[in-house]
Amino acid sequence: MDIVIPIFDDFTALDAIGPYEVLSRVGGRVRFVAREPGPIRTDNGMLSVIAEASLDDARSPDVVVVPGGVAVRALTSDPVWLDWLRDVHATSTWTTSVCTGSLLLGAAGLLEGLRATSHWLELETLRGYGAEPTGERVVEQGKVITAAGVSAGIDMALTLAARLIGEDGAKAIQLGIEYDPQPPFDCGSVEKADPKLVEAIRRAVSAREAASRERAGV
Amino acid sequence: MDIVIPIFDDFTALDAIGPYEVLSRVGGRVRFVAREPGPIRTDNGMLSVIAEASLDDARSPDVVVVPGGVAVRALTSDPVWLDWLRDVHATSTWTTSVCTGSLLLGAAGLLEGLRATSHWLELETLRGYGAEPTGERVVEQGKVITAAGVSAGIDMALTLAARLIGEDGAKAIQLGIEYDPQPPFDCGSVEKADPKLVEAIRRAVSAREAASRERAGV
Fold first, then answer.
1. Is the ipTM of this complex over 0.90?
2. B2-181: CATH architecture
3. Disruptive mutation site among A174, A186, A199 for chain B (greatest number of B CBs within 10 Å)
4. Closest by Cβ to A181, choosing from B13, B99, B183
5. pTM of this prediction?
6. Which residue from A37, A88, A90, B75 has the fewest beta carbons nearer than 10 Å?
């Protein structure tokens, strides 16, 4: 089984590594690929992981997992990425995303008419791609599975593992990675968090994006 | 704030990347370090991440997070690693571990007389280092925090984030990474999993270790 995780500079590490940790245990091979092989840096610049092959070397994966990150916005108008996604989706068994990775699937036209999720800050953006946004954590629609923000990739990958190798196998993986989460706070979703916190994060992100647009002169 | 994650060939990626994703958001700098800088491969050989500096370049971190992995057993008798751990622990604000990373802390003598946790398969090993094993997911003892297997590093890092920057900041991080876990199964700990599954994993791991010892002629 060829499981491919395409990465790009400024991707969010946990979006990719959560699913990798689960899917590396289903009995196939997980490959990190990028436009060109080599070191790829994460969104905060504090870590680089190595892409072992290029997108061209991964034209017919069984499973593709697209992570998110601040670079996604630029990639949604990059024909190399969009063509690659359409290409692999044509023959994949499962096409999946974590966090804003779903915007890339959307931009490639793969979410049209489907319910889908993304990071809570970008849910509405999905609408522009003909998808119906939902706040669910993991959304399965035919062979397309989208996951909510960052950490949701672990839940998505366990759901996918159950499809790939059966529930008993997926349960063994969940116990193997001791996934019995006990978050210290009950604030991990927009529904549960203090509305003031949600608003503060929305404002901070808007301000950052405005500053970034000003720097770019757009 | 200098947050250091020491890695080694055959480490478990999520042990390190879970805490990294949380701690990269507390306002300090997270550095991956290794015996020598350069690419370090994970336990399944499917991924390499880059250590940007050597252990020698990280002699006085504020926070150290030690991941686990199959290599840990060898490192527990490696004086370079044990001396480094003792050294950084002498001046650290927080010394932490995920999964079998606690065995390294134990081997360095840092858990003597403390309650501590580890991956459920290795809990009893802690006793040999003078620690009192506990099945709790995150165990805080003075400035030492140990976490259970693999995914528990996320819970540990959020707990630590609350100590470093306060609860409001930690809650913002938890919402930012949308950590509202919904595992598809309720089997992520020894207490919750089917005893047959637990036994099957114990047997498989014992068989693998016996085969490995036979190959090594010990």
1. yes
2. 3-Layer(aba) Sandwich (3.40)
3. A174
4. B183
5. 0.96
6. A90
